[in-house]
Amino acid sequence: MLTLREMLVLVKGELLTPGLDLEAGCSKVFASDLMSDVLSFSEPGSTLITGLVNAHVVRTACLVDAMGIIVVQGKRPNAAVVDEAAAKKLPIIATGCSMFEACWRISGNLPDGMR
Amino acid sequence: MNREIVFRQKFEIQGGDFSRGGEVSCEVKNLLKELGLPAPSVRRAAIASYEAEMNVIMYAEHGVLDLSATPLKIRIVIEDSGPGIEDIELAMNEGYSTATPEMRELGFGAGMGLSNIKKNTDELEITSEIGKGTRLTMVVLTERHQP
What we know:
The complex is a heterodimer of chains A (115) and B (147). By secondary structure, chain A is α/β, with parallel strands linked by helices. Chain A has a single domain (2-107), classed as 3-Layer(aba) Sandwich (Udp-n-acetylmuramoylalanyl-d-glutamate--2,6- Diaminopimelate Ligase, Chain: A, domain 1), CATH 3.40.1390. Chain A contains five helices and seven strands, in the order βαβββαβαβαβα. Chain A has helices at residues 4-10, 35-41, 55-63, 79-87, 99-107, and strands at 2-3, 14-15, 25-26, 28-31, 46-50, 68-71, 92-94. Chain A has a five-stranded mixed beta sheet, sandwiched between helices. In chain A, strands 1-3 form a two-stranded antiparallel ribbon. Chain B has helices at residues 23-34, 39-59, 88-91, 101-105, 113-119, and strands at 7-14, 62-69, 73-81, 123-129, 133-141. Chain B has a five-stranded antiparallel beta sheet, with helices on one face. The radius of gyration of chain B is 15 Å and the shape is globular. The chains are: A alpha/beta (115), B alpha+beta (147). Chain A binds chain B through residues 33-40, 44, 50, 52, 54-57, 59-60, 62-65, 88, and chain B through 19, 21-23, 25-26, 29, 39-40, 43, 46-47, 50-51, 106-113, 115-116, 119.
């Protein structure tokens, strides 16, 4: 189990939605650029890792009960997308890591079977 | 337990308006949560609603989402005016897609929509008429998730 705050440190990220709760524990991560797959296969309470930065990422994450979003590859969603995430109380972390590296950094710190 | 409809609301969906895609389903989810329905059922209904809403935005001209709920059942009917679905059985197959590059750039169009709607609903009825439109009736039962 990791908190989003611990994930933030692991991926050397920047929190784009200050003030939101990062202390809840999260034991699952779902990494994909395909929102169709997120809708089909992610489990509630997962952290979403993605390279997409449009508003649909926020809406998809919200609908599947994701804990937060980690945006990889140095990409940054625009202010409207960040504002929408903040309004939905969905933290967004931006990192320069690639999706593979972000997954590797986080999964190495999750107990086996919870990756 | 009260089996009468305790909530009903209709929403307009504008075909082609990708920027607002998903907003209606987020509102649907919030309303269902506020009603105090079980979270797993609300999640399933919200996912089915979102997939269907995006189908209206991607393919139809206009749609109406009709949400109703009782303590035991969430019912969402989405009726659109649009091209219709030529072969519903084919469209239900995972991976079958007629999505454009624009849709795929947003992370959609993997051909999972209708099959994912089926997965997340307990009852699903699809009727479609070529050149007129499509009507989806989706039901999620909440009973099995209640303590």
